[in-house]
Amino acid sequence: MSNEENRLREQLCLLAKSLFDRGFTVGSSGNISVRLADGYLVTPTNSCLGRLDPARLSRLDAEWRHRDGDKPTKEIPLHRAMFGARPRAGAVVHLHSTYATAVSCLDDVDPANALPPLTPYLVMRVGRLAIVPYTTPGDPAVEHHIAATAPRHKAILLANHGPVVADATLEAAVHAAEELEESARLFIVTRGMAVRTLTPAQVGALESQFGKA
Q1: Which is catalytic among the residues 5, 75, 143, 181?
Q2: Is 178 known to be catalytic?
Q3: Residues in the chain, pLDDT under 70
Q4: pLDDT on residue 211
Q5: What pLDDT score was predicted for residue 213?
Q6: Which of 75, 79, 143, 165 fits as disulfide partner to 33, beta carbons 3.0 to 4.6 Å?
Q7: Considering the entire predicted model, what is its pTM?
Q8: For residues 179 and 170, what is the distance between their CA atoms, to the nearest angstrom?
Q9: From the candidates 5, 40, 99, 121, which is the catalytic residue?
Q10: What CA–CA distance (Å, rounded) separates 151 from 137?
Q11: Which residues contact 172 (CB under 8 A, 6 or more apart)?
Q12: pLDDT tens digits along 25-37
């Protein structure tokens, strides 16, 4: 096992515990994957993100076949689809965080852009948030929906389920997932209020300076 893989195992468990301890996911919900040079590390099925063991993470090869560690999460289809649609992604984070999941249940939001640009950080770290149709957790049918959407969106809401975020590194993916949850919270608590959003010009300026998320 390489030093880099050891580092990623430790980092994955540390960041997962941080997410769990702060209530971004509960029980055995949520899962995380990281791209390796020759495969993937994935959180095991029915595991708690707050109590992961670096040595027991699931090790999959480049074709997503289980090679070592505990049995991987049943949500492999969504991770495989995100990595396939975003070849520069280094990690994928799937949570059941409260406010983002609440937005995924709303019937009156734009499925191509579910959150308004309330803050610059949503634009910079998350970008336009898409919602894909509901599928049963673990259903391979989710791959079709993600494959059609993820090339244009690094962050996706699974309808009535929760958020999936991909980014270049594990740390960046976790930060984006955290920003998504905070933006969803702001959206929910200000619903019905006279809200001032960023203008298209302001959004465009952020995208020009920082790049599209």
Answers
A1: 75
A2: no
A3: none
A4: 85
A5: 83
A6: 79
A7: 0.95
A8: 14
A9: 121
A10: 21
A11: 90, 91
A12: 999 999 999 999 9
